[in-house]
Amino acid sequence: MAYVAEAPKENFRLSMLIYDTRYRAITIQVIVLILVLLFVGWLADNTIKNLAAKDKDINFSFLWNRAGYDIGQQLIPYTNDSTHARAAVIGLLNTLVVAFFGCIFATILGVFAGVLRLSNNWIVGRIMTVYVETFRNVPLLLWIILSYTILSEVTPPPNAFRVTDDMIANGQAPAASMILNDSIAITNRGSDIPWPYLDHPMPGPVILGVPVNLAVWISLGLIFAGIYVARMNNRRARLIQEETGDRPTVWWQNLLAVVLPVALFLAWRGIHLDYPELKGFNFQGGLAIAHSFTALLIAISLYTGAFIAEAVRGGILAISKGQTEAAYALGIRPGKTMRLVVLPQALRVIIPPLISQYLNLTKNTTLGIAVSYLDLKGTLGGISLNQTGRELECMMLMMGIYLILSLIISSLMNAFNAAVKLKER
Amino acid sequence: MATATDTFVRREMLGQKEPPTSQRGIVKWMRENLFSSLLNSVLTIIGLVFVYIVLRTVLPWVFFGVWHAGSLGECRQIIAETLGPDGSAACWAMIAERWKQFIFGFYPQDSYWRPTLAFALLFTALAPVLYYGIRHINVRMVGAVGVLLMLALWGLGTDAAHLMLAFVLMAALTAVAWAAPKKLVWLTILYPAIGFFLLWGGSVWGPVGALFGFVILALVWYGLQRQLGVVVAGGAALVTAAVWWLYVQTHVTGALQSALPLGLPPVRSDLFGGFLLAFVIGVTAIAASLPMGILLALGRRSDMLLIKALSVGFIEFIRGVPLITMLFVASLLLQYFLPPQTNFDLILRVIILVTLFSAAYIAEVVRGGLAALPRGQYEAADALGLDYWQAQRLIIMPQALKISIPGIVSSFIGLFKDTTLVALVGLADPLQGITKIVRADINWKGIYWEPYLFVGLIFFACCFSMSRYSMYLERKLKRDHR
Amino acid sequence: MSEAIVRQIDRSHMQVSDEIAIQITSMNKWYGAFHVLRDIDMTVNRGERIVICGPSGSGKSTLIRCINRLEEHQSGKIVVDGTELTSDLKNIDKVRSEVGMVFQHFNLFPHLTILENCTLAPIWVRKTPKREAEEVAMHFLSKVKIPEQAHKYPGQLSGGQQQRVAIARSLCMKPRIMLFDEPTSALDPEMIKEVLDTMIELAEEGMTMLCVTHEMGFAQAVANRVIFMDQGQIVEQNEPKEFFNNPQSDRTKLFLSQILGH
């Protein structure tokens, strides 16, 4: 087929910048660009003037100066002689550790509450509704402060746990006692829980001032290897099912594959639990957890759990009754219907809001400063900022780090969404 | 049984019969909802035991609480006398003594009628937005607000003159709602100035002057838009208005004030606190963020690469950082970004940053509303020859915003709860700020359940009713769209 | 479907003049790499009633959507009423205000009443005073026989009524050309007739019409020309009688046998 040449070329006129769809877009964008640049320039100019007026500059070298303050909870070694940069890393790790456990607990709570809220048991459904509505409609900060206040003001001081000879003689009980078979002590200073230690620890090299615990890494490696074996085993089971129609029972093999090697390894290294014990004025041994961490974790898990419950409920409700009915009509039993038809579809609906809740949770960990939990906001954006007076640098760094965290989580979400999207026209 | 070949004609229709006993009433309900299976029965029993334990602990604590006492110690003493040494009950006396502080912060006592009136007018101003031109709902809403306002003012011990003033005002507004419900929208338009004047006080000419700037803006825009197009005229109007606000207004209002001094006693921002502060920040930020959010949403859907990139960048940046960091930007960094010597108070700075914050979230809500509109609406508007802004204003936005209302309400709930964070930059929010002050009082040292419960309950009442309202709207929208 | 056309048609006004209303010359359009419209040449005189048919995906809707630039063409020339459609906004506005369009899914504005739907464009585009616009709207609403629904909302009307409102809405702009994009495809069978009747009336008054439709009864009764499209090109065009009784191309024969065969 022959194509006739383009319409004769028009001469460019100035009015075309506004009235011609081809140029109009460019004109508008150029104007917007100029305005934005002017605005940014104005901000930058103000900043420079203000900095000059205060005799300051923008300089990140303070990060390598001595921090000079203590941090209660530290996942990697830190003293007040460490640098501000290291304090920031400690803060970031504290943020991450609360976010990590928060996500896990909130998910468990949320899935439970969401499913139970849909149960046809009236009273259970109501209880879950009360839970969800109570937590969703009251600020998170209240839950954090309330949990912290209760933990630190209601719980007994360590010396209330003391058992003196007089008490034994008189058959009296101490004012307070440890819970869960004498393993956990909750005092007004913090919680002490038992913690696993190895008789034969395996210290590794120190990288960037962080001692590497080889035993942990080996255990993790073994678990992942076990999961891989379990997946291969599942595949084998599916192949057998496809060929013969019968699916061999594999769950106990899989469980063994994951658990047994780690258990053997740890037993070989002599694992044992170290229990907290009252010595002098305080508990020793085990692991001491600050109330700020516990309060933040409890509050944030309960709060986010309520939102996740709504997401889960919404996801299950979104799968139309027709899907279940169609599966029943094909003779699929209710349990299998849930697993094969409803859940795969519901997950598609649930996962995006779930991940955005994880995002919210991570950002909400900043509220920990209300109970002096030293996360990234508390260290880099708090004490370091106040000590050095470097507001611009600290805030920029901190916002950048939060932004990167968020971007990582949301890019995970997008990747997941793309992977599970229903294939539609 | 009849065989298949038999013909059959029913001569008499069957009447309705009662279902068997197991299929009706309480028995059926219990069987279905509580004891449908073994697992369910166990769950029911666990649930009942749980509820019983909770109620047994909580109810006496709440109902045997002490309302009249001067300090926590006195409370404990009274409780020990009435309930015995092991008894525990609430000490509501603290609330009875301090509730005004929880609500108004340090706002001057004799001016409590001002925020109360501003709050009532806010709802009156909302009526035409939610139910534009529907007479009976507007009348009922304005009337109800009037009655509640009178009750509230009476409860706050307002003097007769202000009570009378409020009564006349609300009666007049109800009359307007009845006579010309669409005219109520003028109150909505004027509300920002009225609200500002009532809350902060000062000369009446300040807000009037600021409003006049908007009148200039509208007039210039309207006069030029035919010749220059919507956007260019908008820019020109904005520049003219800015000139008025920045250079002319103060002289004119100053002259007017000296000629005709009208006004209310000014109230400093740092006296704002409690729920008053939460509402001022929340309502201002959400209202101010709407236009910005709409523009951002349109920008994000634009074909123009630069505009889209700028909108996406802004939205994702704001959504990626925690609100607290924005608040700290307000308290620590904003002073760097503004011209030297500009200094305005913390509340305003916080409102600006919270507005930016909520604009990003509103933008996403509006984007959802825009995406829900069928493409046909855009095409029909194009085919009729409407230009972009006409199509947006007349066709797209009315529908998209209506769809977005539930989402906007949810954003507001989130924002309202988040206003508690302003305590962390030193403002007296109801939760941290005021409660801390109360708990620092020597009389009430060691009290924790009562203040948190009280504040939590108010938050719950506000947020829960708003979320129910937004769910109701959502259901109604679904019905309307069928 | 020809039984839908029960009324005797008055052809007295249906004169085709020599004046050219639309001229399309060697127009091409791509969606990405997909060549939707291939080398379209077409001239429409004032007063013509043209029915465009063809299998789905043949580009017939795209073709008429190009005529008021809901779709952009990449090469060739479209001249509507002496105005060439280029990227010039003024031309686009001019063409759009002169060409009415009726959509398959009506695309009424659900937040506005029927009357407001009809007066919107005259008020904002033509700058007609409101009272006058309302008079005109009522005139056309009575013409499509639903003046009594003027204050209802689109959602309260049946599909057929909505489509008639959509026609009235286009007519309120006093267009010189009307485009119909499968106006009856989304309607229940019992409502098709009322819409077709309205369209026939319009034809009787001498409106220039381009209509994408599968209503072959309508084509036989009203059209003066039927265009058959397949794979983005015009395969055959002819008078309706010749087209239906004596199709030339194999593709046309196949298509006709499929839609009229049973």
In short:
The complex is a heterotrimer of chains A (about 425), B (about 475) and C (about 260). Chain B is an all-alpha fold and about 475 residues long.
How would you sum up this structure, described in words?
The complex is a heterotrimer of chains A (425), B (482) and C (262). Chain A is mainly α. Chain A is built from 14 helices and nine strands. In chain A, strand 4 and strand 5 form a beta hairpin. In chain A, helix 3 (84-118) crosses helix 10, helix 10 (291-318) crosses helix 12 (334-364) and helix 12 (334-364) packs antiparallel against helix 14 (391-420). Mean pLDDT of chain A is 83; it is low at 1-8. Helices cover 74% and strands 1% of the residues of chain B. Chain B has 18 helices and two strands. In chain B, strands 1-2 form a two-stranded antiparallel ribbon. Chain B is globular, with a radius of gyration of 29 Å. Chain B starts with 24 loop residues before the first helix and ends with a helix. Chain C has 262 residues and is of the alpha/beta class. Chain C has nine helices and ten strands. Chain C has helices at residues 60-67, 89-98, 114-124, 130-143, 159-171, 189-204, 216-222, 240-245, 250-260, and strands spanning 20-31, 34-45, 49-53, 75-80, 83-84, 99-102, 177-181, 208-212, 225-230, 233-238. In chain C, the strands form two sheets. Chain C has a six-stranded mixed beta sheet, with helices on both faces. In chain C, strands 2-1-4-5 form a four-stranded antiparallel beta sheet, with helices on one face. In chain C, helix 3 (114-124) packs parallel to helix 5 (159-171) and helix 5 (159-171) packs parallel to helix 6. The mean pLDDT of chain C is 87. Chains in contact: A-B, A-C, B-C. The interface between A and C is medium-sized, with 14 and 15 residues.
